[in-house]
Recover the amino acids of this structure.
């Protein structure tokens, strides 16, 4: 092999590897570890000798092609991919255009295109599709870089290019393959080992960046191992050491602390990693058995309410789309659980599926591998502990409750401990304000990601406690590092969940516990047991809604979509509620949510006799 620039750079960077770990951002030792026998000798012995290595083996591919013809679900999704491919081929090639500090939209588009086009090429061998793959690769591999200052961009681009080389490389021009592999090394892997930069903090990070970036680097390493086996081994070994820092966040029960849509993002790359390692090396080194990873699929399913809205705490999106979830399909394959195989959603007409997920290639493979072994009944009441503990109650009449503890300083966290959402009869009566566009905020110079008590993040209604259905003491922000655990959970027909909010309010009161009770099939009881101290001036009970609100004696009546819900102040019927309109929102940078308002009940400290008190509010329908 002729020496190249990448060859010399590899030698330089390999000398720096031994000191790398000391310079990476650490999150403490992970609770569990993955098996890690990977070395250059290990790869030489165990790496599949021929491509494809990523997701596919000859046996898997043979079965996939058979299922496209014989299986209604696989065939239907494949037809949707064909329609997606037609749309892609009508689009211009990608350009290196940043949105703010991110190239991420371009990288994600490339990953989407390569998934669709390379899947079709593996099946149909259409030379026009191959030509388009070739031109797409030449375009992005001639970018000066893949924006390593925001390494998610590099990771998703690396996975896209690696997939194309692995699945179509035998038929692509040799010059394209050489350029692509050179780019995977020089623009993908090597910058992540640059100890003069801080952009590789994710190596031992505890959020979705860890999952996404290691997936991209592993894909690049597998595809370029024939050129640089030592670098490939060090990249994969580093990932096996680093990934547990993020995987620990699923524990102990599967709650993903960043919310349901971030579960889909981070987890999709984790399961792709497991799938790639299995196909390329014959093992995932214990990744699929990592504690609480499998349980997280249940969290994902339960996070979708009957209305189709997510329980959208943290930086979660609002509502899922119609088509099936391909990430869940991996869990269906591993468990045989029909709850994770969204057959009806995968069978909607192909022309109604729209744009498919950018993991459609491996996703189609997982669909072809599913074998039902049973369907576990979903719990009607469920609790998950962890960094952002949640409790969920469901039932007939579209009953859905989601409540949470946690702390504001969690990854993608908000000052929302004690908050909840509530649905009944197809209406989301109690809302979470959800997420808002990052770039719209960042381009103004807004510091969105600082998590100190005084940081700008907490001025936003979507991030602070004034925009959530929780309690506020002394009109102050929650204490950002105060953690609220779920201290009691009782399942059954009338489930209960109790959250200790004391730490959230620091020295502003003595103690406070919030209890949620499904006290009937159609109602929710919220009880707050409070002990004040000399610093307590007021306690404000808050409920966020987009419904119309009529103030009545002893509470309020909410009206939406021709239905009504009563808010009853059981403990203090003499106090009158107030309604604060939040549309338009207080700040220009706030998310504008039509009809948003905050219902308040204000309790001066003097109403709590002997320094103690109980607030009881009940939500129930009016038929």
């Amino acid at each position: 092999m002729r020496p190249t620039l990448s060859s010399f750079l590899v030698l330089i960077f390999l000398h720096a590897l031994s000191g790398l770990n000391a310079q990476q951002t650490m999150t403490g030792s992970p609770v569990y570890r993955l098996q890690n026998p990977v070395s250059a000798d290990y790869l030489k012995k165990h790496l599949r000798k021929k491509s494809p290595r990523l997701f596919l083996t000859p046996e898997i591919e043979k079965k996939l092609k058979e299922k496209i013809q014989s299986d209604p679900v696989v065939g239907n999704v494949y037809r949707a991919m064909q329609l997606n491919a037609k749309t892609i081929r009508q689009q211009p090639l990608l350009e290196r255009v940043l949105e703010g500090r991110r190239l991420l939209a371009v990288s994600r588009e490339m990953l989407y295109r390569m998934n669709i086009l390379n899947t079709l090429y593996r099946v149909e061998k259409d030379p026009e599709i191959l030509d388009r793959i070739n031109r797409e690769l030449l375009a992005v591999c001639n970018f000066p870089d893949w924006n390593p200052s925001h390494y998610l961009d590099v990771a998703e681009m690396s996975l896209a290019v690696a997939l194309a080389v692995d699945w179509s490389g035998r038929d692509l021009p040799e010059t394209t393959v050489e350029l692509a592999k050179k780019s995977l090394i020089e623009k993908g892997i090597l910058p992540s080992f640059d100890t003069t930069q801080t952009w590789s903090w994710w190596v031992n990070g505890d959020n979705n960046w860890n999952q996404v970036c290691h997936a991209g680097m592993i894909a690049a390493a597998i595809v370029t191992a024939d050129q640089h086996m030592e670098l490939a081994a060090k990249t994969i070994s580093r990932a096996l050491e680093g990934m547990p820092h993020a995987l620990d966040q699923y524990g102990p029960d599967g709650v993903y602390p960043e919310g349901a849509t971030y579960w889909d993002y981070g987890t999709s790359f984790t399961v792709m990693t497991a799938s790639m390692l299995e196909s390329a090396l014959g093992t995932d080194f214990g990744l699929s058995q990592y504690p609480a990873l499998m349980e997280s699929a249940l969290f994902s399913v339960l996070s979708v309410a009957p209305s189709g809205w997510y329980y959208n705490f943290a930086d979660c999106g609002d509502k899922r789309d119609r088509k099936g979830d391909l990430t869940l399909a991996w869990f269906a394959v591993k468990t045989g659980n029909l709850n994770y195989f969204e057959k009806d959603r995968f069978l909607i007409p192909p022309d109604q599926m729209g744009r498919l997920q950018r993991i459609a290639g491996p996703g189609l493979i997982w669909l072809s591998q599913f074998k039902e072994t049973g369907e576990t009944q979903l719990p009607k009441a469920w609790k998950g502990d962890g960094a952002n503990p949640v409790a969920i109650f469901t039932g007939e009449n579209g009953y859905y409750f989601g409540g949470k503890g946690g702390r504001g300083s969690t990854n993608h966290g908000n000052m929302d401990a004690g908050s909840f959402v509530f649905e009944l009869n197809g209406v989301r009566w109690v809302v979470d304000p959800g997420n808002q566009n990052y770039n719209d905020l960042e381009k103004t110079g807004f510091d969105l990601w600082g998590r100190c008590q005084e940081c700008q993040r907490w001025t936003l209604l979507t991030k602070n406690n004034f925009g959530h259905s929780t309690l506020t003491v002394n009109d102050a922000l929650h204490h950002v590092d105060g953690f609220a655990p779920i201290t009691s959970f009782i399942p059954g027909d009338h489930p209960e969940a109790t959250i200790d909010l004391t730490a959230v309010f620091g020295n502003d009161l003595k103690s406070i516990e919030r209890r949620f009770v499904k006290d009937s099939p159609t109602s929710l009881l919220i009880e707050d047991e409070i002990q004040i101290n000399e610093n307590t001036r007021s306690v404000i009970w808050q409920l966020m809604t987009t419904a119309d609100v009529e103030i009545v004696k002893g509470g309020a009546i909410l009206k939406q979509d021709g239905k009504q819900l009563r808010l009853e102040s059981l403990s203090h019927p003499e106090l009158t509620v107030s309604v604060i309109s939040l549309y338009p929102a207080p700040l220009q940078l706030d998310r504008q949510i039509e009809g948003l308002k905050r219902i308040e009940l204000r309790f001066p400290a003097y109403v709590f006799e002997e320094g103690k008190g109980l607030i009881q509010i009940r939500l129930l329908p009016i038929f």
Residues 1-26 have pLDDT under 50 and may be disordered. The radius of gyration is 26 Å.
